[in-house]
Amino acid sequence: MTPRLRRRVFLAAAAVAGAWLLWGLTGLPDYGVYNGPYGDVLNRVAVAERKATNVVASVTFDYRGVDTMGEEYILFAAVLGVATLLRAQRDETEQPPDEDAADRHAPATSNAVRVIGLGLVGPVVLFGIYVVAHGHLTPGGGFQGGVVLATGALLVYLSGEYVTLRRVSPEVLTDAAESVGAAGYVAIGLLGVVAGATFLTNVLPLGRPGALLSAGTIPPINLAVGLEVAGGFVLLLSEFLEQTLVIRRPGEVT
Amino acid sequence: MIVLEVTVFLLVAAAGTAVVLTRNPVNQAIVASFYGLVLGIMFLVYQAPDVALSQITVGAVALPLMILLALAKVRALEGSRRRDDDR
């Protein structure tokens, strides 16, 4: 296919796709107009039914809990896939991280980065726990909080060395957090089956709206997701760092 | 309010264009991080704080980080190939 023909094919396809898109845009509801019934229904009944002040959490972890379980397992499978792809190959050898290599001196982390990074680790971890624990009350939840928690591990790497990261997040611990979190979601779902209802039925006591212990199974599920996401992201981070800093093909420059 | 909405839309459009126009992958990762942050602000302006939080954590932190780490590995590999060619 010559470049000229290719351009013609592209222009024709772009014209059709563009016209189709414009046609679709004309059928959109007006700016700021909401037509769907579900949002209005949820706004009316969700807090009374589930005692969670964050209606988004009621939807994602209760009414549509199975959807979120699927999403959690997408992330689980993705992390698993990356860990498999980034494992040490037969012709690769492990070497001490760049920072320790005799022939190379990585620029030392500046004191400014070190102080700010280490100073942020505590608040970031605390904020992550807060976001996970208050998922049913305020915006946030297991996913967001889990990533924030994993950012804590990233800060440790940025202000220290790769070895420090491995020391504060041993592989056993991150693997365990990821699997326990993933399995925990299903286990909480099975509580409903045990109680004689359907999978993921909210069978725990609902409590009072606005209380930390309220909304039944939503906070435990948030905790499970938080563990899974934090473990998964730290695992991703350390697998990538290991491939980049420790594992070498023969002859690969560091 | 309408001023804020228009401003944030323009910012998103400008940041998105900047990501496309940045050709160096390392710079692009940083610009993409900024784009993720701006997108998060847009979600906040449209009163979707849950989505804004996810967007900021994933778009501004996780994604650029993965790109940077992958680039570091690719560069180390390219270095080794170049060394092989020299032999």
How do the helices and strands line up, and which of them pair or pack?
The complex is a heterodimer of chains A (254) and B (87).
Chain A: H1 3-26, H2 37-50, H3 55-63, H4 65-85, E1 93-94, H5 111-133, H6 142-159, H7 162-168, H8 171-194, H9 218-246, E2 247-248
Antiparallel strand pairs in A: 1-2
Helix pairs in contact in A: 3-4, 4-8, 4-9, 5-6, 6-7, 6-9, 8-9
Chain B: H1 2-21, H2 25-45, H3 49-86
Helix pairs in contact in B: 1-2, 2-3
* Biggest sheet record of chain A: 2 strands, antiparallel
Show unreliable segments of chain B: none
Structural class of chain A comes to mainly alpha
Give the biggest beta sheet of chain B: none
In short:
The complex is a heterodimer of chains A (254) and B (87). With 254 residues, chain A is mostly helical.
Describe the structure.
The complex is a heterodimer of chains A (254) and B (87). With 254 residues, chain A is mainly α. Chain A has one domain. Chain A contains 9 helices and 2 strands, in the order H-H-H-H-E-H-H-H-H-H-E. A two-stranded antiparallel sheet of chain A has the order 1-2. Chain B has one domain. Chain B has 3 helices and no strands. In chain B, helix 1 runs antiparallel to helix 2. The chains are: A mainly alpha (254), B mainly alpha (87). At the A-B interface, helix 6 and helix 9 of A face helix 3 of B.
